[in-house]
Amino acid sequence: MKLTTRSRFGLRFMVNLGLNYGKGPVYLKEISQKEEISEKYLSQLALFLKSAGLISSVRGIHGGYVLNRKPSQIRLLEVIEALEGDLNLTPCIQDVSQCSRIAVCATREVWLRMENALKEVLISITLEDLISIYKGKAANLSYHI
User: Fold this and answer.
1) Hey, is 71 helix, strand or coil?
2) DSSP state, 98?
3) Which terminal CB of the chain, N or C, has fewer other CB atoms within 10 Å?
4) Other CB atoms closer than 10 Å to residue 36's CB: what's the count?
5) Is residue 15's pLDDT more than 60?
6) Burial letters for 49-85: b for 16+ Cβ neighbours within 10 Å, e otherwise?
7) Could you tell me the maximum CA-CA distance found in the chain, to the nearest angstrom?
8) Assign residue 36 a region: left if phi > 0, alpha if psi is -120 to 50, beta otherwise?
């Protein structure tokens, strides 16, 4: 199982918005340059995040994108599911009618435990946690000439 670039780039997008939380809207162009992600792709990600109610766009000369809630109130599970959809590892987890062997299937229990563990990790981490990690890493960068 691999997460797509939607999730990887979408989280970077959200971290950038979180770094600017309370300071006003952020231009996609600014995030695009900082994260080295195309502005066009960021605009596509923004649609998913807006639909999920995680961000809003602000029009006008001082427009851009903002978070709809504090970073401490946004769980990574919400962001990933907004970008990827449900994180069901197999179809039978959500809908038992997808498999005729459900009554005797031993592997379904493994997939269910894996899915639950993944969701537990993602729900335990907030956007604020990621921002703190980012700030810690950025503070440790040093330049030598």
Assistant:
1) helix
2) G
3) C
4) 8
5) yes
6) beeeebbeeeeeeeebbbbeeebeebbbbbbbbbbee
7) 66
8) left
Q: What is the pTM of this model?
A: 0.87
Query: What is the second-level CATH architecture of the domain 5-140?
Result: Orthogonal Bundle (1.10)
Which residue, chain included where needed, has tokens 């379904």?
A: 108
| Of residues 138, 128, 121, 140, the one with CA closest to residue 15 | 128
Please answer whether residues 46 and 13 qualify as being in contact, where contact means their C-beta atoms are separated by less than 8 angstroms. Answer: yes
Q: Which of 118, 119, 77, 112 is nearest to 93 (CA)?
A: 112
CA–CA separation, 70 and 77 (whole Å): 15
Give the position of tokens 């962001």. 79
Straight-line distance from the first to the last Cα atom of the chain, in angstroms, rounded to the nearest whole number: 42
> Could you write out the three-class secondary structure of 90-144?
CHHHHCHHHCCCCCCCCHHHHHHHHHHHHHHHHHHCEHHHHHHHHHHHHHHCCCC
Query: So where are the chain's domains?
Result: 5-140
pLDDT for residue 141 is more than 60: yes
Nearest of 114, 87, 79 to residue 6 by alpha carbon: 79
